[in-house]
């Protein structure tokens, strides 16, 4: 047995002695579900550490650092990029059991542990008349620790911003096992370096969060939704600019291109406009005080009449759900176009969206693959879904070429390769397009300073990994969107 392997065995035995076999699990049945995230790229590792307290986290990191054992921290495992897959083996530190939530109404804050599910945070805040806006699509499953790790967004980013905008403070542990606190239960913080924001979006490579203080807002009194159809994708995206330049501030502004609408209408059987089909859509929602909503409603309907082919407004909750049906069903229905999906969450500036729409047409024609695209138009965060058949080698190669072209073009348009999913393993080949040598060197220096032995989530962000070389596990996860057929 290699010296490195022997060292890891000794470290694992020491960890079992400290925490017990109930918390340190070495059997394959226990380890397997944590060997991959939503990317379904599975890797073998030595032990699953089921942390139930800060003591467990500290003990794990101290031993891991001393013996240089890789540690991959995870919550629910909803990451799409492989950031939660233990590519270097070692230990998986599962913090999902650390899930307490405390709402401090007078301060408009939530104090939460990393395993708290985002939907639960929202529900507990709402019960106190408060509001936590970030809403990733997996919010019923994903944990706040994971959201912090990738700086998750969601549909409400149009008005409210992303996870970073609601994190007031973080507490946790450095890779050495030393406890640190970046801020506290207060809204102002100007005491030294802002390491808190380094941890946010670092994908678990710089530290382990054990507590977060979140900023809450007053719960909006009402919402109002309108769905607008347009002649083509270009006109829809130009209408986005018109809406925003007019000073309107929707809470949600979602774009569905023709291909996405095809999936919703022809495959999932959604019927939205009588006598009008296969037209790109904008789903727009406003929230706030009823008086403000009256003004928003009038202005939005004028905008829809002027630029759209047709529109529908929701006057009841049931009608709102009908309007949302296209957005909810299009993603699952895409699997009728291929059994594998590359879901990229690229970002392009508002002024480049029209050029991006033209480019997508050329990209699909070049690589001869369907690429339904939808997403958060107000902040330019689009989900480009490249559909192909995994068992067809020639289609896999075309999909690979299409992704590379996509990433290069996005950066050329002044955008970036990820808006909310992060880099993980899947996007490491494209970091060279998004970050120059000086920027990469600066990030490596930060990593070295905070994690001198390189134990936390190694193999992510910096090292190129070819995800095409590994076959994903054939598993159905709780949040998977299954094909929706008529």
Written account of the structure:
- There is one protein chain.
- The strands form four sheets. This protein has a seven-stranded antiparallel beta sheet with strand order 15-12-14-13-17-18-16, sandwiched between helices.
- The longest helix is centred in the C-terminal third of the chain and has 20 residues, at 393-412.
- It has three domains: 3-96, Uridine Diphospho-n-acetylenolpyruvylglucosamine Reductase, domain 2 (2-Layer Sandwich); 101-218, Uridine Diphospho-n-acetylenolpyruvylglucosamine Reductase, domain 3 (2-Layer Sandwich); 222-422, Vanillyl-alcohol Oxidase, Chain A, domain 3 (3-Layer(aba) Sandwich), CATH 3.40.462.10.
- The radius of gyration is 23 Å and the shape is globular.
- Helices cover 35% and strands 19% of the residues.
- It has helices at residues 3-19, 28-31, 54-67, 118-126, 144-150, 157-160, 195-199, 233-245, 258-267, 290-307, 317-333, 353-367, 393-412, 431-434, 437-450; strands at residues 24-25, 47-50, 71-74, 91-94, 101-104, 109-112, 130-131, 167-173, 179-182, 208-215, 217-218, 222-229, 252-256, 281-288, 310-313, 340-347, 373-376, 381-388.
- With 486 residues, the chain is of the alpha+beta class.
- The mean pLDDT is 95.
- It is built from 15 helices and 18 strands.
- Helix 9 (258-267) packs across helix 11 (317-333) and helix 12 packs antiparallel against helix 13 (393-412).
> Which regions have little confidence, pLDDT < 50, spanning 5+ residues?
none
What's the total helix number? 15
| CATH C-level label of the largest domain | Alpha Beta
Q: What share of the residues lie within helices?
A: 25-40%
Biggest sheet, strands in spatial order?
A: 15-12-14-13-17-18-16
Task: Report the sheet with the most strands, covering strand number, pairing sense and barrel closure.
Answer: 7 strands, antiparallel
The dominant shape is globular
CA radius of gyration is 23 Å
């Amino acid at each position: 047995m290699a010296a490195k392997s022997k060292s890891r065995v000794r470290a694992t035995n020491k960890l079992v002695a400290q925490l017990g076999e109930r918390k340190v699990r070495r059997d394959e049945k226990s380890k397997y579900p944590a060997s991959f995230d939503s990317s379904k790229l599975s890797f073998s590792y030595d032990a699953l550490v089921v942390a139930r307290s800060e003591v467990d986290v500290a003990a794990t990191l101290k031993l891991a650092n001393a013996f240089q054992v890789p540690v991959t921290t995870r919550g629910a495992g909803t990451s799409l990029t492989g950031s939660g897959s233990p590519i270097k083996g070692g230990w998986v530190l599962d913090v999902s059991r650390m899930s307490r939530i405390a709402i401090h109404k007078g301060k408009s804050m939530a104090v939460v542990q990393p395993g708290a599910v985002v939907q639960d945070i929202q529900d507990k805040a709402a019960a106190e008349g408060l509001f936590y806006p970030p809403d990733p699509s997996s919010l019923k499953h994903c944990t706040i620790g994971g959201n912090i790790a990738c700086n998750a967004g969601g549909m409400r980013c149009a008005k409210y911003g992303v996870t970073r905008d609601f994190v007031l403070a973080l507490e946790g542990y450095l890779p050495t096992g030393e406890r640190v606190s970046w801020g506290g239960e207060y809204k102002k913080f100007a005491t030294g370096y802002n390491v808190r924001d380094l941890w946010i979006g670092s994908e678990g490579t710089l530290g382990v969060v054990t507590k977060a203080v979140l900023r809450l807002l007053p719960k909006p009194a009402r919402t109002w939704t309108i769905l607008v159809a347009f002649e083509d994708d270009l006109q829809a995206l130009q209408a986005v600019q018109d809406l925003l330049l007019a000073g309107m501030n929707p809470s949600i502004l979602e774009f569905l291109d023709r291909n996405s609408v095809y999936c919703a209408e022809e495959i999932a059987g959604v019927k939205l406009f009588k006598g009008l089909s296969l037209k790109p859509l904008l789903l727009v929602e406003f929230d706030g005080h009823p008086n403000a909503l009256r003004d928003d409603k009038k202005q939005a309907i004028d905008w829809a009449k002027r630029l759209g082919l047709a529109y529908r407004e929701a006057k009841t909750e049931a009608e709102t759900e009908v309007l949302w049906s296209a957005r909810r069903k299009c993603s699952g229905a895409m699997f009728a176009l291929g059994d594998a999906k590359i879901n990229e969450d690229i970002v392009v500036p508002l002024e480049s969206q029209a050029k991006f729409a033209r480019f997508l047409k050329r990209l699909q024609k070049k690589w001869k693959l369907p690429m339904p695209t939808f997403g958060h138009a107000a902040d330019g965060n689009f989900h480009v879904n490249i559909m192909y058949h995994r068992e067809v080698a020639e289609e896999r190669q075309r999909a690979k070429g299409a992704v590379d072209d996509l990433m290069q073009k996005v950066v050329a348009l002044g955008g970036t390769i990820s808006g909310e999913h992060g880099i993980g393993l899947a996007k490491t080949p494209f970091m060279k397009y998004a970050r120059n040598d000086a920027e990469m060197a600066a990030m490596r220096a930060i990593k070295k300073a905070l994690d001198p032995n390189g134990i936390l989530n190694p193999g992510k962000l910096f090292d190129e990994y070819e995800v095409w070389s590994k076959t994903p596990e054939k598993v159905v996860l709780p949040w998977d969107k299954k094909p929706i057929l008529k």
